[in-house]
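User: Could you check the structure of this?
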Amino acid sequence: MQSKFLKLVIGLGLIASSFCAYAQSDADYYQLARAEGKKNNFAKATEYCLTGLQKTPMDMDLKEYLGKCYLETGKLNQARMTLLDVLRKSPDRDDARRYMITIESLSKRNASAICYVNELLETNPYDKDLWLKKVNLYRELHNNVEAEKSISRLLQIFPNDEGVRKTYNTIIRESASNSLKKENLEEAAMQYQNALLTTKRDPEMFDNLINTQIKLGDYSEALNSTNKALFFMPGNSTFLAKKASILESQGNYTQAIATLQEALRKNNSPQLRKQLDYLVSESARVQVNNDPYVLYWKIYNSNRGDSEAFKFLLNTALERGKLDDAQELLSPALRSRPNDKTLLLKQIQVFERTQQTSKAEALYDRLNQLYPNDTDIAAKFHQIRFNQAKADLKNEEYAKALQGFLITLKNPDYATISREGLFNSYVGLRNKDQATQAIDALIAQHPQEERYLLMKIEYLRNCADYAAGLNVAKQFHTQFPHSTLFPEELELLSNQYIKALILQEKYDEVVDISDYVISIKPDNLQSYLYGLNARVSQKKLDESARFIESALVQFPNHRDLRMRLAGIQGEMKNHKRAAELLGDLRREYPYNDTISMAWAEEMFLTGRALEAANQQDEAIVVYKQIIEENPRDLNSSLKLLSLLNERKQHQEAMQLVNQCLQQHPNQNDLIYQKAVIYENTGEWENALDYYQQYVPSADKLEAIKEHIRFLRSKYFKNSITASFTNVKSDSVLLNIPVASLEYARRIDDFNTFVIRGNYAGKNNGVGIQGEVDWYLKLKNKSSFLFSAGIANQFFQKYKASLSYFQPFAKDWQLEIGGRYAKLSNDANFYTALVGIERAWNGIWLNGKAFYMTDSDDNYYNVLLQSRFYLANELDYFTVMAGMGNAPEDQRLDFQLNNFLSYANSMVGAGYRHHIGYKSAIGLLGTWSSYKMGDEAFINQYNVSLMFTTKF
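Assistant: Sure, the predicted structure tokens are below.
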């Protein structure tokens, strides 16, 4: 029973979990589809919808969104069928109806779209967008009646909405236009009036309404509409003209003329003027029977030869502006008297007043030929020709202008200005010789006039004849040194000249010109820049620096000049000065990255220069300044690390490299520097770890691999050394070979122990000595050496020693020690020593001074040693020398008894060679000379062979 119950529970749980997973999956499909839709990826959204609907075909949300996806992807039929199915099953879905409006509209099924709009408006009666959609759909169907009803309804809902009002006006205008086409004038007028209820300043609408009322013959209403238009648009010349026309139609000439005169005050157009003349003539026609002018016409028409009537009519016609009448009178008169000056002058009046300028000018030309001595005609003629020439010049008709100016040049009143016109005409015709002659003539005639010389300079500049232009400019400055116009013209000329010279790389001339301009206008920055660039291009760096400093007198705060000066100082290798200049700029512009980067670069180069000059302390200070300002400056950090390592300032170097690695994790050069620091401090395991992380370049790969092998050898804690010393001397008794075997064990970085056995054989027996050494290294880099030994014979019976080593300065170490020995003759022998050593650049030097005593006598010895390391820093040559009255050679300390109190000297040399990093062999030879008496010496030759290996 329990088993069945358990199965039932498990089954129900599986069904429930499946259902939950299924429901969750459907919701996920809808959300996935919506997410893709937001990205406009409706094709992918369609796939999600279809997949989801396979599982839940009754999910109307998913199906409705599928319809939208079909719509967005242009599948209108599928969208329509899908959404119709949604609306059949779920009629309350407004989104589906909105999608259907779009689908039907795109399919040109506008009537169907209107149905969906109406359905939505039942539930959303104040939806402006739906109403506008409905209006536009009716317009698509060309059903302006329904469109007008709909927009009228919308206007009632939104009376102040500008968009609705604009649409309303558009539809009403279209309806009125249709009414006009159907000649339904009354309806059109009513529609225009309705439209004007929403807009009061639509001139086109008012014009259409007035024209329609005029067509209806309703001049009273047309006048009212015109006055209304002028109320909303006062001073509108179009409506003023229209009002005058309506008043004329009503016979009210006086008010019509007053209206047009008002219009002309605001817009003096020929059309209004013509309309006014027409109204005046019409008004005059009414009073014609009272006008003498009309009576004289009757006389003249009856007798064309009546000179009184002709004269009265012609003068009156001209006075009253009846130019057609005047022309009617003049034409026959001129045919009979073509050269009559009075008639020709009257004809000119008519031509001028009717704006027939060319005809009037032609008559003046003719009059000037007929009456050359008439000064009034000549003056007018030259005025006309000069004005025409000016117009031709302005219109770039240079040949015509030239001819005109050549004519007016003969008139003294126009001579100078005409010669200017000639000059400009020749310039336009590109006739340089004639242009030059014209301007030179003006200069000669007016030597005190500045502008003609300036015109010549400008002309030569425009002709690209810069050299000639500059010569004229210099002449001008000599003649008019205080001209206010000259500096600007000189600047234009010099700038163009210099640009041309730069293209030709004529930098000497650029320098001369820019310096001349500066002498005239010291505040001309551009000339300073040109002069500077020319000097820099010629690699005249010293001169360029001095030139900038002179420019900075005028522009002391000019940032770019100061940066250029810093740059030139840098090029001259004056990096320290460049850095100082850029440092000043940095303080003024702390947020300018360009200045900061330039300062850092010059500071870096300053540091390098100090390094090259072996001023390492100063270089370190510079690099620290750079890093303090920009901790991320890798190059400066690497340089500083190298110097600190070289000076064995390992603690500071380690602090710096760790900071840099925080800024530049895993940076290759920093990893190398950290490896070097560990190596220098004897932390071989850490050094090896970082050397293995370092990725060397191809040319350094083998060297690094070799170095890693060397460091691994530092791991070896044990070593065995075997040595043999062969002794030869002038005394056979002293020829005793010595063999040694030692074992060394490095316990840790601070403690090392050595056990050594020495063997010496003579005819009378064998001597054996055992020794123990303890090397103790302290954390402050100082160290101790403790040593003790015991022997049976030949060697010292007992011995013990202690030495203290203290590093100081940079590469120095001091040794202070003492020794005790029980000699084979049972004498006690004490030794005090002081030593000093230094290592640098592959050289090691050591000097020791010994003071010895056996309680009866005192002895001394001085020993000097050196090593010269080879390229691998492991192999070396050694040389040594010593002197005293007791020997100092611990390898042969069993002979100490024999040579006490004898002056001796010693020289030696040797070589040590490593076989890989585990083993090494060495050879050392010494020659000692002992003075046994005044003429007696014993020479001793020692040759030692050594082999050592680590494991």
